[in-house]
Amino acid sequence: MADWAPVLIGVILFILLSPGLLFQLPGHSRHMEFGSFKTNGKSIVIHTLIFFAIFTILTLALHVHIYAG
Question: Can you give the pTM of this predicted structure?
Answer without folding.
Answer: 0.85
